[in-house]
Fold this sequence. Notes:
Elements: H1 20-32, E1 39-41, H2 49-65, E2 76-78, H3 90-97, E3 102-103, E4 127-128, E5 138-139, H4 153-158, H5 171-174, H6 176-193, H7 200-211, E6 213-219, E7 228-234, H8 244-247, E8 251-255, E9 265-267, E10 272-275, E11 278-282, E12 287-291, E13 299-302, E14 306-310, E15 314-319, E16 323-330, E17 341-344, E18 350-357, E19 361-365
Parallel strand pairs: 1-2, 3-5
Antiparallel strand pairs: 4-5, 6-7, 7-12, 8-11, 9-12, 10-11, 13-16, 14-15, 15-19, 16-18, 17-18
Helix pairs in contact: 2-3
Amino acid sequence: MGSFEYGLAYPIDSKYFPMKDKLSDQIKFMKDNGYYVGIHFYTNVGASDEYEENELAMHLAALEEYGVNTLEPRGFNQHTWHTSKESQTQSLENGFQAGLLWNSGFKPSASNATPESSAETALNIPFCFQDGKVNKSIIFNTSTMLYDSKGWGDISAKYDLPVSMYYHCDFAYSNLEKIQSDVMKAATFARKYDYNFVTEDQYVKAIAASYNTKFSINVGNSESKGDIFITKQTKDKTIPLYDEDYQNSVGVKIVLGEKHLGKTVDTSSTIWVQTDNVIYVGTDGNISLNFGKPKEFHLTRANLPVDVNYTANGAKIEFKVGGMMQVEVSGDVTTTDEGWIITKSENRNATILTKFGLAETLNIKK
C-alpha cells in the first residue's frame, strides 16, 4: 500500500473543516492563559524524506493560520510514536530541520515497545541529539506511566531522573473517573518523591540550561572548616533555547562523602534542601556551603524560575514565568495573597503553596 491514511478528516486549515470557529476559540484561550502548543507529528514507518518534510511544512502552516507563532521555541512528538524505518534518525532530523528544537516522544525505528508502558523507558535521561551540542536539539522520550500498576516510575525516582509524563487528551472523553484516578496517582508520585510539575517547554528550557552550565567546585582547607564553594559559568548565550531566567535557576546535587556523613549544611543559596547526606542547592549566583546549623526558614524547592527576597517575617517570591506555580518552604507559613492552595509536605516539616495562572509575586509569612 505504501502508506496508510489516518481517516478521512479535513486538514484544520481547509475551508471544509467544520470546527474552525471552535478550534480558534480554544487556541485563543490557550494563548491568553499561557498554554504551550506543540507539534504532534503524523508520520509512519514507511515515510520518505519528502513525505515528512511536506507533512511538517503543512502542519506549521496550519498553526500559523490559527495565529500560533511558530518562530517561538517549539518541539514535536510522533503520532502513535512511529518514526520512519528509512533510517534510525530520519524523522528526528526532519523535525529539527523544520526549526523544531526538541522531541518529547517517539518510538525508535527498530523497537516494538510502546514507550509509555515499556521497560525501555524506565530509565530516561534527556540528551543532546548531536555531539553534545545543546544548540542543535534535545531528545527526551516519554517516561513509563506513573499511573500504571507496574511501578516503573519508582525506578526514575530512585535515581533522581526526570519524568516526562504522557497523557493523551482522548482519555478525557472516555472515562472521567479513570482520568481523575490516573491524575491522582501521578500527584501521589510527585508528593511521595518531591517531584515538580512543569509544562513541556519549561522542562526543555531547564534541560538546556543544565547542559549549558559549567561548574567549578572548590573545597576549603581545615582553616575554613571544610567550606564548599561553587562557581557557575554559562557556556553559550546564543543557543536557541537560552533563557536567562532558567539559566539562573540551574541547581546542583551534592552527596556527602564518608568524612562528612551525618553533618548538616548551611548555604548562601536562596533555595536548598538537605535529606540525610544529599543536598540540593539552587545556584542563583556563586554560592558557598558551610558545615553547621542551617537556617530554619528557607525555600526548599520551586518548580519554576523565581527571585527570592527574604524579609524579617517571611519572603517575597517573584515567579519569572507562569503556569503551575509551586514553592515549598520550611516550617509553617501562610499568605494573604488570593488563589494560593496551601498544603503540607509529606516528607518534612514544610509548607507547599500552589497556584495556576500567569506569573505573579507571592508574599509569604512565617
